[in-house]
Design brief:
By secondary structure, the chain is α+β, with helices and mostly antiparallel strands. The protein has 15 helices and 18 strands.
Length: about 575
Amino acid sequence: MVLALVLLVILAVAWVGVRGVLAKGHLERAVADVSTLRSQLTSGDTAGVQQSAARLEDEASAARSLTSDPVWGVAQYTPLVGANFRAMREVSAVVDDVARGAIKPVAGVVGTFGTDSFAPKDGKVDLEPIEQAQPAVARATSTLAKAAKDAKAIDTSGTLSPITTAVGQLRNALQSASAQVDVANRVVELAPAMLGHDGDRNYLLLFQNNAELRAGGGIPGAVALLQAQDGSIHLQNQASTADFGHFDEPVLPLSDQTVGLYGKITGEYMQDVTLTPRFDVSAKLAQAMWQQKFGEQVDGVLAMDPVTLSYLLKATGPVQLPTGDTLTSDNAVTLLLSDVYAKYPDPKVQDAFFASAASAVFDKVSSGGFDPKAFIAAITKGAGEGRLRLWSATESEQRQISGTVLAGELPTASAQTRQFGVYLNDATGAKMDYYLQKTISVGAGVCRKDGRPTSIVEVTLKNTAPADAATALPEYVTGGGDFGVEPGKVGTIVGVYAPTNAIYLGSTEDGKPATVHTATDDGYPVAQIATLLAPGQSTTLRVAFLGDAKFANAALQVRSTPGVQQSTVEPLTVDCSDPAIG
């Protein structure tokens, strides 16, 4: 009897061991298939996608089958090693769920829906493939969200190092994939209606100028009205923001906090609607101004800058402007944000130049004269850098946009991520921000017994203009001292935002106590500091906030006003004796 029991145990161990080796092989091949799928999707190999998806489904199904029989079920409760069997079974189940519920349905529509679906043909985007893809992409979105949650719940406290590592990689991959597919799902749900499938749509395009910064990106220099009709987009009307003049009162009621931070001018000048970093506020103000000026109600607002335009030019190729200038991806930023002021001194001609540049690129895009993959890459890059914003007047659509990089929302905090905001507003009254260089660092440490984290956001600004900027640069660029800033110098108001659960502690400029204006914006703590830099001069600001203990281990991120150059966020080591902490 004892001998029989021992034999059964040996057979069970052997059975589980063999099946474990086989399951491991299936999972490894499934991972390889995922890599192949990614390459095939990028290259547009639709037939290959179908084959790889089917192979991946077979491998994932086999791994799940091998790790879900009764013997394996008993093995996962074995002392010391059971946790490894349980984790492997759960990993196999998650991978199989993803293969069946996400990859398979999406692969099924790849043949009819891909990056080419967004390329106009004869001036019109075919909306039918996008609509047909909606159910598959929606299913993939819910599957990946559940898979990410299931992977996070896998207990690795007692697993061996290789399994722990594998689970960690699975979690990271699913979190990234879930976020990406969620964005894709929102796009396919929004695109048909927003492109005029259910009726004509009118959109306002704000072309922002980074040479004169606003918290939301740059001063709107040119404005255009776009009309979408069942997949075709037409440029209906263009105007300079100077055409709007000054409204005697804000066109919409402004909160006391917005007025206190950015002034009533936020709602009185089209050039100033982006003083606030909240794009929903900026968009509603721009919508109201357009209606008052032209009597037309727009259905949404889109904002972009010359840097995004340079990305798009990689997809469209060079465009010829009415002035005879050729706009390319290499010269767009310099030409639009610097050279234009020396070449065309008249501000009205400058505005017309901006409008013609935006119009020329738009005409090429709307006609389908671009590389679809390069176009998607350009849009993705511009949006990721905060250079592209979108707001819809339709509440259900705006809810879909909310939470994405397009929304232009204030920073948030969760157990996973704590976000801060660094927003710059020009105080020179000119175009000197072409020469403003910005670097950002952020870090946190626990300096209190209650475990609440202290975070410091560091911002370094430098005026890179030539030493003789006051005389070498056009007066329109320097401002000529008209707004109280000596020509050649750069005046900037820096606003640092923390999540709503944070408390402002203190701030310094170059190691000394800073002159700071503290306030709140819809519950977000804000510290505003004014800087003034001569050519070649730099300054470093540090702003400290106290956070919530439950977010102490969250990763730190910073949202920032996009300038001419994209700034990266570097890690910062927090010293609890730092003067900024107070």
